[in-house]
Amino acid sequence: MPTDFAATRALFDLPAGLCYLDGNSLGPLPRTARERMARAMDEWGRLLIGGWNQAGWMAQPGLLGDRIGRLIGAEPGHTVVGDTLSIKVYQALAAALALVPGRRIVLSDTGNFPSDLYMAEGLLRMLGDGHALRLVEPEAVGDAITEEVAVLLLTEVDYRTGRRHDMPALTRKAHEAGALAIWDLAHSAGAFPVDVTAGGADFAVGCTYKYLNGGPGAPAFIAVAPRHAEAAPAALSGWLGHRAPFAFDLSYVPGRGVERFRVGTPPVLAMAALDAALDIWDAIDMEDLRQRSLALADRFIKGVLDAVPELELVTPREAERRGSQVSFRHPEGYAAMQALIARGVVGDFRAPDIMRFGIAPLYIGEAEIDRAVDVLAEVMERRLWDNPAYRIRAPVT
Fold first, then answer.
1. Could you tell me which CATH number the domain at 34-281 has?
2. Binding site feature residues for pyridoxal 5'-phosphate
3. Does the annotation count 221 as an active-site position?
4. Separation of alpha carbons 105 and 125, rounded Å
5. Could you confirm whether 209 is annotated as catalytic?
């Protein structure tokens, strides 16, 4: 049955009159999340420490991992939830490097999210021994995959421009060169169909607070290909990644498969909100979502370029080359975005000059797209951004 996107909008608690085009940064509140979190709070109050067993808190990272795994094409039993995306990047990269001994180069691109690069820099600096991070322009990644490379570390969709890498092609090239591939799905999971198994990914990581709508600070996930599950070492050998944590051994024994990539105590309340959000995805056909996303994005692109030719589109026009966001460049992009937000159209800004608009069909339709075009045209044509108040940079842009 085709996905009813008019019905899915009612599943979210959005302020009346708000045109929310920032789900690529933080998804809105699922209506059932309050009740689900209240239930977890009640379990905490009634059961106290017994909640870990009686309410099944300890099993949630794997159960939620499998629900996300279905959305990203991971094999059942090979995805786990917990910690932050930066920690999962670190774990995946450390494990991948250990699986390719004798090589020292991690290849990434200049469009990767800085946090991924920071984690790589920190790990490689600690490893020493000639380990280095090599960055190339996004279009040059394929040609830069040589037999020097140990690991290819890429974010599938560029957080600034929305440009999408070809996961199967680049992973295949990495494997042909004897390297492994790690894919960050922060702007992919919940945005369009993903298949890490068919794409050959060795490791995949991602967050759940963007398109998956898990809430601010919602836990991250990591998926490990079955071929590496028992061989990949756990660089962050946390207590809950131990094979028998409640044996309290003084030496670490890695858990089985992806379980070894658990680190800290599961965030029970955050997982309750994520659990509610994932219920929505059970009724979503991802191909329907993708087609709807592309149609809305095309409508937005055409509307903006027709009405505001001074804006430079930086998102690829070709459907296969983009994710589910549209980005424009303008020298006054920050102030212009603040003017939009003041008028009820919410996107965000990424330095130095990019205005981003997330296209999330679960709660965005033609009416929101057309309104965003009209307000953006008014802001630019009337120079409404030229207001000192809109130039004051907030901590989060």
1. 3.40.640.10
2. 85-86, 113-116, 155, 184, 187, 209, 239, 265
3. no
4. 12
5. yes
The rounded mean pLDDT for the chain is 96
Predicted confidence (pLDDT) at residue 2 exceeds the cutoff of 90: no
Predicted TM-score (pTM) above 0.90? yes
Question: What pLDDT digit, counting tens, does each position of 219-248 carry?
Answer: 999 999 999 999 999 889 999 999 999 999
The question of whether 356 is a catalytic residue gets the answer yes
Catalytic residue of the set 12, 20, 90, 113: 113
Q: Which of 109, 158, 184, 348 is catalytic?
A: 184
The active-site residue out of 210, 260, 292, 322 is: 210
Question: Among all chains, which residue has been given the structure tokens 């979190």?
Answer: 37
Is 390 an active-site residue?
no
Using the predicted structure, report yes or no on whether residue 210 has a pLDDT greater than 80.
Answer: yes
Active site residue 210: yes
For residue range 89-109, list pLDDT tens digits in order: 999 999 999 999 999 999 999
5-29+285-391 is classed CATH 3.30.930.10? no
Q: Within the chain, which residue ranges are assigned CATH 3.90.1150.10?
A: 5-29+285-391
Domain with CATH 3.40.640.10 in the chain: 34-281
